[in-house]
Specification:
- The protein is mainly alpha-helical and 40 residues long.
- It is built from one helix and no strands.
- It has one helix at 9-34.
Length: 40
């Protein structure tokens, strides 16, 4: 009996991209709210 594992690679890539964008947005909001206006 064979076991097949299907993965939706496009969905995984999209999710990773979305997580990256959300992290960047969080960082931007933190910088705006703290008055930091430059990127290290």
């Amino acid at each position: 009996m064979a076991v097949y594992v299907n993965t939706n690679v496009s969905s995984l890539n999209g999710r990773r991209y979305l997580n990256n964008v959300q992290n960047q947005l969080t960082t931007t909001y933190q910088r705006l709210s703290s008055g930091i206006d430059h990127v290290n």
